[in-house]
């Protein structure tokens, strides 16, 4: 078995060019291991093995073979430090998307829509979108075919994806469904969708698989069975962002317009954003003697009519709170005077309609009973900044 040889004095290779620049359709041709990305910039990781650092706000994505769009994990905004990546040169990338739309919430799904004539257009930036009509899943008959027996742990639900665009009658593919089970007295009592999916031309055959750690595997389990049917025919069941386009000046500067044969469908673009400024416009007092910390809470997409989708269940994205330092003047009754806060971490959010996260100021309050607390007036700005990513060859 071959292995790499290394030791003292044998280090990592310096930054290098990986491809001939003239090679058609090749990944970017870097000669530096530090690259600055602006809002909307992406960088395809060349073929090979690399240590990747996504910086403060960039995320790693892979090209999802089901939707043919770039996918980022729910924990993407929290990944820190270097990550080891083995890339094929085409399906893994670093994306800096603050200020850009990354997904859409279906506020109302409407009816009467036809796949071939339905379009979604962005107004405010040059992002591109692909609607998916119908083909969502439901429990056939509203219940399980059989509940099984002997389960000690909830079994797993395995649902096949819809066919890709090349083999799908709708010509665009779809979104894979997902679900989980609940057990009671050893039987499967319910199956709940975390994503009803979209674009299925026919109901797939799911399989309920016992957990490999079920303590009752040795004593025997009678498998539960379930059947699905199609639902939401003629309704908008999914909207895929095929290109996030340019960064927006503000997250309210984009609207999604749907057109076609149907009616009563409305969409909201979900924009990735970070805090770029925290400005105290009105002084406050009573904040103690230490530097105050402004942090944020919330930051999630709008709620739509299709409840069983990751966005609505807050499973598609984990917002990262911002951290901002504010100077407190202890000599002036714990006053936070007019200032620009020092942004330690602008956070990372995916929100709809320009709704910014709420904020709270953490500090050591003054204990004097005669000291009145006066809240500072603070204006927060969210949008796109720049980020520095590193891509170091591993061998």
Could you list some keywords that capture this structure?
39% strand; globular; mainly beta; 395 residues; single chain
Q: How would you summarize this macromolecular structure in one to three sentences?
A:
This protein is mainly beta. Among the domains are: 136-231, no CATH class; 272-384, no CATH class. The chain has no helices and 27 strands.
Run of helices and strands: EEEEEEEEEEEEEEEEEEEEEEEEEEE
Cα gyration radius (Å): 25 Å
Major β-sheet annotation: 5 strands, antiparallel
What's the helical proportion of residues?
Answer: under 10%
Q: Determine the N-to-C terminus distance.
A: 17 Å
Q: Number of helical segments?
A: 0
Number of strands: 27
Taking pLDDT < 50 over at least 5 consecutive residues as the criterion, the unreliable ranges are: none
Strand content: 35-45%
Overall form: globular
What is the overall pLDDT average? 88
Structural class: mainly beta
Explain how this protein is built:
The protein has 395 residues and is mainly beta. Among the domains are: 96 residues, no CATH class; 113 residues, no CATH class. It is 0% helix and 39% strand. It contains no helices and 27 strands. Strands 8, 19, 22, 24 and 26 form a 5-stranded antiparallel sheet that branches. A 4-stranded antiparallel sheet has the order 1-27-3-6, with no helix packed on it. It has a 4-stranded antiparallel sheet with strand order 2-7-4-5, with no helix packed on it. It starts with 33 loop residues before the first strand and ends with a strand. The mean pLDDT is 88.
């Amino acid at each position: 078995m071959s292995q790499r040889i290394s030791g003292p004095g044998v280090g990592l290779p310096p930054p290098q060019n990986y491809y001939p620049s003239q090679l058609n359709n090749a990944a970017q041709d870097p000669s530096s291991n530090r690259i600055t990305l602006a809002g909307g910039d992406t960088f395809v990781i060349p073929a090979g093995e690399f240590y990747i650092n996504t910086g403060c706000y960039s995320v790693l994505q892979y090209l999802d073979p089901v939707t043919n769009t770039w996918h980022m994990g729910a924990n993407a905004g929290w990944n820190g430090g270097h990550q080891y990546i083995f890339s094929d040169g085409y399906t893994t990338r670093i994306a800096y998307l603050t200020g850009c739309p990354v997904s859409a919430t279906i506020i109302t799904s409407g009816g009467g829509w036809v796949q071939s004539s339905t379009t979604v257009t962005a107004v405010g930036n040059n992002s591109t979108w692909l609607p998916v009509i119908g083909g969502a899943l439901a429990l056939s008959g509203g219940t399980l075919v059989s509940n099984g027996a002997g389960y000690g742990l909830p079994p797993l639900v395995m649902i096949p994806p819809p066919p890709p665009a090349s083999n799908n009658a709708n010509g665009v593919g779809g979104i894979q469904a997902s679900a989980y089970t609940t057990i009671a007295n050893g039987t499967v009592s319910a199956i709940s969708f975390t994503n009803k999916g979209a674009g299925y031309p026919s109901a797939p055959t799911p399989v309920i698989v016992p957990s490999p750690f079920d303590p009752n595997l040795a004593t025997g389990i009678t498998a539960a069975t379930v059947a699905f049917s199609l639902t939401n025919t003629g309704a908008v069941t999914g909207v895929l962002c095929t290109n996030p386009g340019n960064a927006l000046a503000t997250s309210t500067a984009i609207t999604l317009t749907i057109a076609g044969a149907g009616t009563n469908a409305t969409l909201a673009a979900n924009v990735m954003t970070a805090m770029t400024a925290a400005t105290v416009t009105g002084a406050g007092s009573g904040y103690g003697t230490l530097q105050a910390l402004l942090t944020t809470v919330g930051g999630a997409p709008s709620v739509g009519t299709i409840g069983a989708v990751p966005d609505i269940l807050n499973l598609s994205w984990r917002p990262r709170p911002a951290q901002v330092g504010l100077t407190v003047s202890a000599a002036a009754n714990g006053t936070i005077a007019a200032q620009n806060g020092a942004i330690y971490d602008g956070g990372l959010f995916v929100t709809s309609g320009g709704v910014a996260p709420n904020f709270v100021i953490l500090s050591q309050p003054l204990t004097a009973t005669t000291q009145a607390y006066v809240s500072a007036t603070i204006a927060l700005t969210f949008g796109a900044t720049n980020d520095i990513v590193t891509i170091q060859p591993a061998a």
